Amino acid sequence: LDSLSTDSSDLKKLKFEMVLDKTEDLKNAIDDVFESLYQAMLITFVIVVLFLRKIKETLVIALTIPITLLLTVWFMHTRNMSLNVLTLSGLILSIGMVVDNAILVVERIEDYRKLKLSRKEAGARGAADVAMALLMSTLTNAVIFLPVAFIEGGDTFTDLLNAFQIPILGSLFASLFVALIFVPIIMMYAPS
Q1: pTM score, two decimals?
Q2: Engineering a disulfide at 90: which of 48, 123, 141, 167 sits with its beta carbon 3.0 to 4.6 angstroms away?
Q3: What's the start-to-end Cα distance of the chain, in Å?
Q4: Residue 170 in contact with residue 72, Cβ under 8 Å?
Q5: Would you give the distance in Å from CA 18 to the centre of its chain?
Q6: Which of 67, 17, 55 lies closest to 176, judged by CA?
Q7: What is the pLDDT of residues 82-126, one digit of tens each?
Q8: How many DSSP H helices and E strands does the chain contain?
Q9: Cα distance between residue 4 and residue 63, in whole Å
Q10: Alpha-carbon dihedral of residues 105, 109, 114, 115, nearest 10 degrees?
């Protein structure tokens, strides 16, 4: 390549050949993420409606899934991570973990609403009541993935664990943030 000049006749001699094309794998992984997202939202909606028997609260809980995933993708972006098959698989794994915090906050807010507290006070008290428990639960789950940060090796298994670590940890902490900040706000201003 260095021997070629910028002369157009020399440039015509260059041949490009596709060596490796991962676009189909990435497209399939993205499709899997969205399929898992839709399934998680549907299953969450059905299960929560069966237990709470309230549509508004169920919609609030289901809404936390895409918000949490968007925050997780933003966190991955700030860490200069790419969306590849491994990180998207980590996102798929984390989908099931993101609704627990929101369910607890919604239930606690509803308990305070039954005591005839205002929406604002019920939201603030409900989130405050479960904040420490949610933080400890999130930290307990995060500790499971923390040792991966200290593994050195550069082998395929270590790369796999590292690719899962950031999406899962990001989604756990995004879920905590969404449950303690967004859920009370949504519950305060959502129509009855």
Answers
A1: 0.75
A2: 167
A3: 69
A4: yes
A5: 34
A6: 67
A7: 777 677 777 777 777 788 888 889 989 989 988 988 888 988 999
A8: 8, 0
A9: 57
A10: 120
